[in-house]
Amino acid sequence: MASAFVETGVAFGVLPLGTLNHFAKDLNIPLDLDSAIRTIVEGHTVPVDAGEINGRLFLNNSSLGLYPDTVRERERQQKRLGRGKWLAFFWAAVTALRRYPFLDLTISLDDEEYRRRTPFIFIGNNVYSMEGFTIGERERLDAAKLSLYVVQRTGRMGLLALAVRALFGRLRQAKDFDALFARKMVINTRHKNIRVSTDGEVSRMTSPLNYRIRPAALKVIVPEPESAEESAEGLRDDGRDADPLQSSAPTP
Questions:
Q1: What are phi and psi of 179, to 5 degrees?
Q2: Whether residue 221 sits in one domain with residue 194
C-alpha cells in the first residue's frame, strides 16, 4: 500500500498491524493502535527513503537465499499442513538449513565488482544494526543509502558462529562477512530467474537485480518531536545534566 504514496506528496499514516512492525518501530510510531491513530491525527510528516529492486519498492529490506526459501516453505506448510505461522516458520527454517543452497553472485556497486558464493544476502533500505541487542534496527531512514550484508562461503556451523559473533558485537571482525553501502547496486546470478524477498513477500525476479535508493520518496506521519525545553526538563528530572541535542548518521 505504501508504494501508492511514493513521490505523490501525500502523507502516509502507519497502523502497526503487522507481525513485527519494523518500519513503525524504526520511526518511533507507537505500537498501540489507539496511540498510532492519535499520531496520524496529531503528528507531523517526515520524508523517508524507499528501496527499489527492478521497479518494485520496499521500505524495509530485500533478501536472497535462505530467507526467501524459508518463507516459501512456511507458506507451503501453512496451506498444506495447517500449521500456525510461527510453528510453520520454525520447520521451514529447519528445512531450508537442511538444503542449504549456495548462490554464486557478482555484485557491482560504485565502480567496484565483488564475486561471492553465499547462502544468504540481505539488502536494507538505509543502514541496519547487525550486532548486539539492536540487531535489525535502523537509526534513520533518510541517509539515502542501501546497505548490503553478505555471508561468504560458510556452512551451517559457520552461520551459527556468525550469529554468536553478532550477538556479542564482533561481527565486523569476521572475515566471512561483508557490509557494503551504496546508492545503487546490481546483483547478477547464474540463474535467469531467482526467488527474492521484499518486505517479507516472495516473488521470482529476472536477473540481473537492479537495486537503488529513492531518497525522500515517501512522506510518513510520525509523532511530534519533543521540544528542546521538554527534552532538557526530562534530562533534569532524570538527574542528568542537559546536553545540546546532536544528530549524526550511523557509522557504516
A1: -125, 120
A2: no
Return the beta strands (E) in 32-154 as ranges: 44-53, 56-58, 61-65, 103-109, 112-118, 120-125, 146-151
Residue with cell 569476521: 174
Are residues 141 and 27 in contact, defined by beta-carbon separation less than 8 angstroms? yes
Residues 6 or more apart whose CB falls under 8 angstroms from that of 158 comprise 151, 176
Residue 46, C-alpha cell as written in the block: 517526515
CA distance 22 to 42: 22
pLDDT in tens, 1-17: 677 888 888 999 999 88
pTM of the model: 0.76
Grid cell, residue 208, equals 540481473
14: CATH: 3.40.50.10330
Band of pLDDT at residue 117, cut at 50, 70 and 90: confident
Looking up cell 540463474 gives 191
